[in-house]
Amino acid sequence: MKKAARPEKRTAAARSTSAGAPPAAPTGPRRVRLLLEERRRQILDLLEAQGRVTVDELAARFATSEVTIRADLKELAAAGALLRTHRGALVRRDNDDLSIAVKETLRHAEKVRIAVAAAAMIQDGETIILDSGTTTVEIAKQIRAMKDKSINVITHALNIAVLLFNVPHVQLIMLGGILRRESHSLFGPMAERSLEGLRAHRLFLGVDGLDPAIGLMTPHLAEAQLNTRMISVASQVVAVTDSTKLKRRNVSVIATVDQLNVLITDREAQRDVVDELRARGVEVVLV
Length: 287
What we know:
seven-stranded parallel sheet, three-stranded antiparallel sheet, 39% helix, single chain, alpha/beta, Arc Repressor Mutant, subunit A, Rossmann fold, 2 domains
């Protein structure tokens, strides 16, 4: 009796192709680069949570060599993201003013979620102000994709302007002033005077510190003064910041929490801070 033919085994590649699976993950040099950037981002997140890290701890955590970890720490220290020690690294002090390049590596996933929630608030025909900062840059990226809404965007941030200058549905209004390279933004009396005669439906404000007892804070006095002027021309003030900035204090106070309408932050926000802000009339959105 002739045996029935066994069904042909399908390879994983064939199954993937027939199922319409997405393209394979990047390979080669591009994948190595992605893995390197992700590891360094996680090192910074861990450092921010713990305050200090050691080379052997990181090598074990990421299943890589101590030589690789030392190279990571060296590069991050050169960029100003951490303070290098003999056996590891220390977190930068709260009042240290980090560059945009460094801030972009911190809490990136949280910033994207915050940006998505912020962009969802924007209505067709509105005028908004985008403050400088890595979270507001993510909002600008979301705005690029909002092809069903036509809006006016006021900003003093050069990197945000670069993202939006050629977007057809965005009327871009740039504030003048003195360039501050650390934040890619313009500030000073000229920038403040540029806001005269302008009004906005809402301001999306990035902050380096938010303490309910003190208010919204930043390490740079001149930017705090410009932010205060932005608040005065906006009907609604929306702070966009990740939870690590809550209860963090800084040098320059922008405004008290009584001037804040909405806070969008991540789900790791301290419960007591969230409760106090809500008790004082601030709408807190956790993403």
